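Chapter review: from sequence to fold.
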Amino acid sequence: MRRLTQHVGLATGVKIANSWLLTDKQGRRFLVDTGYFTDRPALRAHLWLAGVRGKGDLTAVLLTHRHSDHAANAAWLREKFDCPVACHAEDAPFLRLERRPKKMAVGKAPLYQDWLNLFEDAYPARTQVDETYEDGRWKWGFRVVPAPGHTEGSVMLVHEPTRTLFSGDNILAGVPPLRFIEHLSLAAPGFSQDTDLCNGHVLRFLRDLPRVDTLCSGHGPIVREKTGEKLKALLETCECRWPHLAEPAGR
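The token string follows.
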């Protein structure tokens, strides 16, 4: 686990999506998103090196959404570390196999996105869900920001004590799977169910942005320098391009 700040580490061997390890001042440890099935050996090695080795070492697995590049290892982590898995209530039925997700879009995006979408359709993530998020202030210092539209229950998580924003795929810091080029953008249409819905929620959040020192997104590098300024600049760019998306709307 590559330590990037005092509180946040990144499993660099997990290649497609980012898997973040947050350690709070009480010593609790949270894994935000978990990578693909194929990432499990790398994830296990990174956790071992970070001291997460047995039952009780991981406080919880927190999912920003149900897609398999973010949630596929949740069931394994739950069993190995005897820790709860949490996600938004709208994504929980799909992870529990109580509902089947709609097929991902194919033929409307670059070829590599089509392949990833076909993989998602064939191998959706499955896990028991122990807790579901409530919108607003939750527990352990997290605030839950709903951003439905990428998936039914996609969210962003603000860890208020460390002023860290885990944005999932709702705000991207780079182009998957690259981590060395920083480029902030909103949810990718090729992977989202309702991009306008998701982006509208994100822009309304950015208009009333709390203090954020660190951005940990689902894809791309960590953002630690002038983070608030960069998020405000993203808001301005997107409001100019899609002014209707930031208008008030119900969920």
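Two observations follow directly from the output. The first strand starts at residue 2 and ends at 3. The chain has a mean pLDDT of 93.
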